[in-house]
Description:
Blueprint: E1 8-12, H1 15-29, E2 34-39, H2 55-63, H3 67-73, E3 77-79, E4 81-85, E5 93-97, H4 110-120, H5 132-138, E6 159-161, H6 164-177, E7 181-184, E8 187-192, E9 199-204, E10 209-211, E11 214-217, E12 234-236, E13 245-251, E14 261-266, E15 269-275, E16 280-286, H7 293-302, E17 313-316, E18 320-322, E19 326-327, E20 330-332, E21 338-339, H8 347-360, H9 369-395, H10 403-410, H11 415-427, H12 440-449, H13 466-485, H14 490-499
Parallel strand pairs: 1-2, 1-11, 2-7, 4-14, 11-20
Antiparallel strand pairs: 3-6, 4-5, 8-9, 9-10, 12-18, 13-16, 13-17, 14-15, 15-16, 18-21, 19-20
Helix pairs in contact: 1-6, 1-8, 3-14, 4-13, 8-9
Amino acid sequence: MSDKALQRIVIVGGGTAGWMTAAPLALRLGKSCQVTLIESADIGTVGVGEATLPSIRYYNLALGLDGADFVRRTQATFKLGIEFKDWGHRGNRFFHGFGDFGPAIDNRPAYLYWLHLARQFPDMPSYEAWSMTTAMARANRFIPPYGEQGTVTSGYSYAFHFDASLYAAYLREYAMERGVQRIEATIDGVDQHPETGFITAVRLTDGRRVEGDLFIDCSGFRGLLIEGVYKAGYEDWSAMLPCNSAQAVPCARVEPLTPYTTSTASSAGWTWRIPLQHRTGNGHVYCNSFISDAEAARVLLTGLDERALDEPRQLRFTTGRRRKSWIKNCVAIGLSGGFLEPLESTSINMIENAVGWLLQYFPDRDFRPALAEEFNRLVAQRYEYVRDFVILHYKVTQRDDSEFWRYCANMPVPDTLRHQIEVFRESGRVVIYDQQGFSVSSHVSILMGLGVTPQAGDPLIDLMDQQALHLHFTRMRDTIQRAAGAMPGHAAFIAKQIGTAAA
């Protein structure tokens, strides 16, 4: 081992971010480096990030977690996507699923052909009829993708809903079994090198001093190290994402156990519903300039499908990101690095990305600046791309029934997002800036779900046999319906999986 190799890593803060960082570090570094995590029972975690993106499966796989054990220990359910209600206009309902609208034809996405056929055949069913995940979700069915590549049963994906506190505890056990030292304490101060400004240690209220080479800030919104020590600065995106408050409350399990998240637009924001095995997570994200906290709580509680198990928990936030997430020997991961409201379940995915990039650009004790620069570039870019996708849900709206929605319709948006909307509106094509982020089909789901109808289509599709194309889509729709109907129910699949093989 090089004499410049890191020997001590200190993670400040536990919760989902802290333990999702500690687990892969413990796996990769083994005994070559001591990883210490400091968390305090007196400082709560946000703990409402219970819905995920499909990438969580690959994070779990990289750790070697047993799928059935994970589902059992975290009270997890499966997630095919998000059902949106009252977005775009009251009474609207559409599904953003983790999959396409049928296999591509001549290297062109299937939705472009649907757009063409919808102009030619007035009785053409909705584009969602060609979404495998939508058909499964509507029927409360679930099974992992199967079959040959290019078939309707292989062209979708899935994620999980889980109890975030149980997931953090699960990873804590995993990490500590692999050598991570846990210290339960509160940090009282930070020591820095007098010349370089690098953090040398954190001081605890009980008088102990914990030294390290690399310090990872998982302290949440306050950013104890990245902001408290290094004054990283914060890009405030409130003008484009005005929601700044949330209330969360669990309720009893709701039947049937749906394999999707539900997001319902309200007069000043939106509410979520996340089904778990043992309970249902609920919340209301809103802007307190347009609704009082008391009224927001009333909206949340009256919308519950079952009895509340607790009182609503109040959260405040400012949407945006740190100007830098890696400064000297300090790296911010999780809420300490930035926050985007959980509309598309991106919070845990942002942790996955940051941990992955930290391992990709892992430093030695020289802490070469180029590594931090590239990490910061990737983090900033991902935050901005996700920001644009979330703004899209608010900006493209026909709702004018409240001051909040009128503000959203007229608010400024980034030029990158404006270009995406214009290109789709004019031609039906989707501009993708981030090939590792939300896909073409995700953008199509939101744009078309919100009522954006392209003014023109793909002229090359005009050259195809229209009747043959229509027959192809009819057969594919029937195949999707038969396949979904033959799948087990979501709850039945979970019961079988946690009792036998890995999920």
